[in-house]
Amino acid sequence: MELKVRVALPTDLADLIALDAECFPKGNTDLEPAPAGEIETGVEDGGVFAAVDENTVVGMLQFDKISSNEWELLTLAITNSHRSQGVGQALMERFFVELSQSPYIVTVSCMTSPSNHAMQGLLESFGFVQVGLMENYFGPGKHRLKFQLN
Fold first, then answer.
1. C-alpha distances in Å from residue 77, one per residue of 59, 103, 122
2. What does the pLDDT read at residue 53?
3. What is the spatial distance between Cα 32 and Cα 84, in angstroms, rounded to a whole number?
4. pTM, rounded to two decimals
5. What distance, in Å, lies between the first and last C-alpha atoms of the chain?
6. Domain of residue 109, residue span
7. Cα angle, residue 18 at apex, residues 15 and 21 outer, rounded to 5°
8. d(CA 32, CA 26)
9. Position 79 pLDDT exceeds 80
10. How large is the average pLDDT for residues 25-46?
């Protein structure tokens, strides 16, 4: 595998949207797909990184700069065929490069499903700490754990 992580391009949109649909299928209370237009806006704003293997998008990380010192990690998605191969690690490392460019001390938050142990482990490996449980965050029964990096 020759993985490259780069800022997502408008030409990646179809692949990113398909990846979101694969990783966050509708109707699953543990997985919430991106709202309409969110990925497109993220690409336009430079807030999406694409993990590419042999010209195929195999993962993405989307973040939002809420303010100069508050960012939110919105999505980390990896296609089934490339899980447990370091794609999430590579995306997070690229995110931390972006974070290190900020002239401000930035707080980063992230919401994830209580059953998404892989994401929880990845966040914790980068120093995120669970700071709360957000009950019914996406609606009835759709609870989320809030993680934060200070």
1. 5, 28, 12
2. 93
3. 21
4. 0.89
5. 33
6. 3-149
7. 155
8. 7
9. yes
10. 84
Burial class of 126 by CB neighbour count within 10 A (0 to 12, 13 to 18, 19+): middle
What is the number of domains present in the chain? 1
Instruction: Indicate the residue type of 30.
Output: D
Q: What is the pLDDT of residue 36?
A: 83
Please give the DSSP secondary-structure letter assigned to residue 34. Answer: P
Separation between Cα atoms, residue 121 and residue 98, nearest integer Å = 21
In this structure, what CATH number is given to the domain that contains residue 50? 3.40.630.30
Cα separation, 84 vs 82, in Å, equals 7
pLDDT tens-digit series, residues 89-110: 999 999 999 989 988 888 999 9
Decide: residue 147, CB within 10 A, 0-12 exposed, 13-18 middle, 19+ buried. Answer: buried
In what helix (H) or strand (E) does residue 57 lie, and over which residues does it extend?
Answer: strand 56-67
